[in-house]
Design a protein that fits this description.
The structure is a single chain. By secondary structure, the chain is α/β, with parallel strands linked by helices. It has helices spanning 2-23, 44-56, 76-87, 104-109, 141-158, 162-166, 189-193, 197-200, 220-225, 236-242, 257-284, 291-309, 315-333, 340-356, 369-406, 410-416, 423-429; strands spanning 32-39, 63-71, 93-102, 114-118, 122-124, 129-132, 135-138, 175-179, 184-188, 205-210, 217-219, 232-233, 249-252, 435-438, 445-450, 453-459, 469-476, 479-484. Helix 2 runs parallel beside helix 3, helix 11 (257-284) crosses helix 15 (369-406) and helix 14 crosses helix 15. The chain is elongated.
């Protein structure tokens, strides 16, 4: 298992190095426009794609970078990562709102040097939300403050009205359009109240733009009128023509298949975790090492590799997963039953998976959403593990007793070959409710002494220690299903 992960990580690392090497080669300095689509949910997969796309664009020395936006938002930490990546770009950048830039999408849109919106598109409403029994609820000042600070930074950088920018985040703000003789200023109610009396006398008009309880959300016309968007256009081509870039070659960097796969893995991760833990639990409770163990390794390994490729999982998480794998191997091949080593192995693997879904170990107070993300990740992994136990128990109780009727499993060939009783004798001598003693450990098959004779029996999925009292539940042909008598 450790070798499997190490090989995959080595392959991915080699591919990344090769990609970086290719990106370092500069193309002839012909002017180009690089278009990077920012579509769908804002998540670590999107952040990894934007970073890779910008890295690939470095080979073009004379370029304009356009971020084509169509997003309802997503994770705050992923949005911050994308914003920081965009701010690090030395070339001129344009945020082009193709359909919508809502919540975290609006934050990304304002990170570009210039904002242009397609006709009938919208931007705004960046309230941090959480789900409760009463539906979506807006988070308080503790969560709004760092997001609002980020918006202020972007507003100062690109010349957007600060008060209006902050009002996308905080519904308690009231923003006025205050007109003086020589200028028009947007200010919140506190700023207006603090104006010097002499300055107040110079006010020609005051109009409420954003009222209390509202979040600023603008269409393309409003965004232009309020000083955000440079223009409204009907298409990307029209935007490039109006900005003087119509003669440049347009190069669109698309998400590749592996990035699409990684984002899909992120969506189905809870299911993969549940299947993985369920398969490992079944493997521990059955003899040898077979298909369930392989399935478990593949599922959990897929989740881990997906998180590694978006930059969240690292060697710390790999070490935790490797320790867990070693402990589980000890439990399967060395120790009988399911004890301390098994539980510790599962715990280490769960911890490694939890940490692989975040870029921090301990949440920072200045980023309050990290604490909520940690709780969410713990609940997801613990919930998936609980579901895995239910699936495994269902398998042992209902599926395993019938597998022998369809497929002759290895456990039947191995354990019944040297002591096959005919059905007539078995049915006549043994009945449900008869008691006996396990003379070997049942994993789940083994031998038991019943009515003075040795019989091959199968437990109902559970491990039964040698010497335990067993009770017959069902006699069907050559198969004797038993369970451990509870004391």
């Amino acid at each position: 298992m450790k070798f499997f992960w190490s090989l995959l990580l080595l392959t991915i690392s080699f591919s990344s190095v090769a990609s970086d090497t290719d990106s370092s080669k500069s193309f002839p300095a012909k002017p180009v426009v690089i278009v990077i689509p920012v579509e769908g949910t804002v998540d670590p997969g999107m952040a990894a794609f934007v970073s890779r796309a910008l890295r690939d664009s470095r080979k073009y020395t004379d370029k304009i970078v356009v971020f084509e936006l169509d997003s309802y938002g997503g994770q705050v930490d992923a949005a911050f990562q994308i914003v920081d990546t965009i701010l690090s770009v030395e070339d001129s950048t344009i945020s082009y709102v193709k359909t919508k830039a809502i919540s975290a999408g609006a934050l990304i849109a304002l990170a570009g040097n210039r904002l242009v919106m397609k006709n009938a598109t919208t931007i705004g409403d960046v309230a941090p939300l959480t789900m409760s029994n009463d539906g979506p609820q807006m988070l308080g000042e503790k969560y709004q403050s760092p997001i609002r600070a980020k918006f202020r930074t972007l507003a100062k950088r690109n010349g957007y009205p600060e008060a209006l920018t902050e009002s996308m985040v905080t519904a308690e703000m009231i923003v006025y359009e205050v007109q003086f003789k020589d200028t028009t200023i947007y200010m919140d109610s506190t700023e207006f109240s603090d104006l010097d009396p002499a300055r107040k006398k110079q006010v020609i008009s005051k109009k409420t733009v954003v009222d209390k309880g509202e979040l600023l959300t603008m269409d393309d016309v409003e965004a232009k009128a309020l000083g955000f968007s440079k223009m409204s256009v009907s298409s990307l081509k029209e935007m490039l023509l109006k900005l003087g870039y119509g003669d440049r070659e347009v190069i669109r960097i698309q998400q590749n298949w592996s990035e699409a796969l990684v984002r899909f893995i992120g969506v189905i991760a809870p299911i993969l975790i549940m299947i993985g833990f369920s398969a490992l639990y079944i493997e521990i409770r059955t003899p040898g090492f077979g298909v369930p163990g392989i399935i478990g390794i593949i599922c959990l390994g897929t989740v881990f590799i997906g998180q590694y490729m978006v930059g969240l999982a690292d060697y710390t998480e790999l070490l935790l997963m490797a320790i867990g794998a070693v402990l589980l191997a000890v439990e399967i091949f060395v120790l009988p039953g399911f004890g301390v080593a098994g539980f510790a192995g599962i715990a280490f693997m769960m911890l490694g998976i939890i940490l692989s879904f975040q870029d921090f170990v301990i949440p920072k107070p200045e980023f309050p959403w990290q604490g909520r993300l940690l709780i969410k990740n713990i609940m997801m992994v613990v919930g998936s593990f609980t579901g895995a136990i239910v699936v495994a128990l269902f398998f042992f109780r209902y599926a395993l007793p019938h597998i022998g009727k369809i497929v002759s499993g290895p456990y039947l060939k191995e354990n019944l070959s040297d002591a096959r009783a005919d059905a007539a004798k078995e049915a006549a001598v043994l009945f449900p409710g008869d008691r006996g003693e396990a003379i070997t450990a049942l994993r789940p098959s083994g031998k038991a002494l019943i009515k003075g004779e040795t019989w091959d029996v199968i437990s109902e999925g559970e491990f039964v220690d040698k010497g335990s009292t067993i009770v017959i539940r069902e006699v069907s042909g050559n198969r004797i299903m038993v369970y451990r008598e509870q004391t």
